[in-house]
Each structure stands twice: as structure tokens, then as C-alpha cells.
């Protein structure tokens, strides 16, 4: 009988009252831990995003491009663009 209840709870994914009582003491601790870890992750993400948004990349030199080379690159870009639109 016990194995059939265990099998039934596993197959239906329903929590028995005993499982609910066993998990109850950990609910708030887990909720607090989730909030703390989520807030740390979110704050690091937004700090990094805001820091990178302020960078103007002025310290990176841009190599000079001649007009001929620029025209050639533009023609290649337009040709690739037409191929993608055709497909």
C-alpha cells in the first residue's frame, strides 16, 4: 500500500499532506534566499549594462578607410543584402 501511494504521488505530481508538512519549515527560508540571489544577479546585470552604456569608445582608434575601399565595401554589402532579400 505504501509503495502504491508513493508511486501514485510520483506519477501524478501531487503533493501529499505529509510532503506539504515536511516542506513547510523551509518555504520562507527558500523564498528569502531566492529574493537575495535574484536581487544580487539583477543588480550586477543592471550595473554592468549601465556602465557599458556610458562608454563612448573614444579610446579605440578607427583605421582610415579610403573612398575606393569604402565604395567596394558598400557594393559588397548591397550585393549580400539583395541575396538575402531574394531568398
From TrEMBL:
Topology of the protein relative to the lipid bilayer: Single-pass membrane protein
Domain Cytochrome c oxidase assembly factor 3 mitochondrial coiled-coil intervals: 19-61
Keywords from the named record: Membrane, Mitochondrion, Mitochondrion inner membrane, Transmembrane, Transmembrane helix
Gene Ontology biological process terms from the UniProt entry: mitochondrial respiratory chain complex IV assembly
A Pfam family assignment: Coa3_cc
Localisation per UniProt entry: Mitochondrion inner membrane
UniProt key word Ion transport: no
UniProt subunit comment: Component of 250-400 kDa complexes called cytochrome oxidase assembly intermediates or COA complexes.
UniProt record similarity statement: Belongs to the COA3 family.
Name under which the protein is recorded: Cytochrome c oxidase assembly factor 3
Native source organism of the sequence: Cyberlindnera fabianii (Yeast)
Amino acid at each position: 500500500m505504501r509503495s502504491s501511494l508513493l508511486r501514485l504521488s510520483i506519477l501524478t505530481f501531487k503533493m501529499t499532506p505529509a510532503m506539504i508538512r515536511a516542506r513547510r519549515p523551509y518555504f520562507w527560508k527558500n523564498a528569502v534566499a531566492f529574493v537575495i540571489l535574484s536581487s544580487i544577479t539583477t543588480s550586477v546585470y543592471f550595473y554592468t549594462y549601465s556602465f557599458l552604456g556610458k562608454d563612448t569608445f573614444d579610446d579605440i582608434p578607427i583605421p582610415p578607410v579610403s573612398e575606393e575601399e569604402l565604395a567596394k565595401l558598400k557594393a559588397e554589402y548591397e550585393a549580400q543584402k539583395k541575396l538575402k532579400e531574394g531568398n
